[in-house]
Protein: DUF4296 domain-containing protein
Amino acid sequence: MNYFKLITLACICALFSCGQKSSLDEKPADLLTEEQMTTILVDIHITESALSLKNYNRDSSLTLYAGYKKEIFKEHQITEEQFKSSYDYYSKHAALFNHIYEVVIDSIAAKEAKGQL
Structure:
């Protein structure tokens, strides 16, 4: 009798899992392109790095970072929600996310080599 309940439960779970679209496949309506994400992430990481080199206390650094991040989003004409949903989407797709961060690292290294940092 216990096997019957277990099999029934497994079948019900299997039926519910079929036909549902995975949230991994769903792109946000306002998804940023890989190029946009790369450019924004470069700006964010350079800002984080610059703030970490200063001797601000933690609260001051977080406050300054929040302000700079708002300016970065404004400069790129996006919202924080748009960035977050795009970041979440790309972070769930490892190949895309890795590619974006490879370009981010290369871009920061190129700026550093040119003395732009």
Q: What stands out?
A: Residues 1-20 have pLDDT under 50 and may be disordered. The chain has one domain: 31-113.
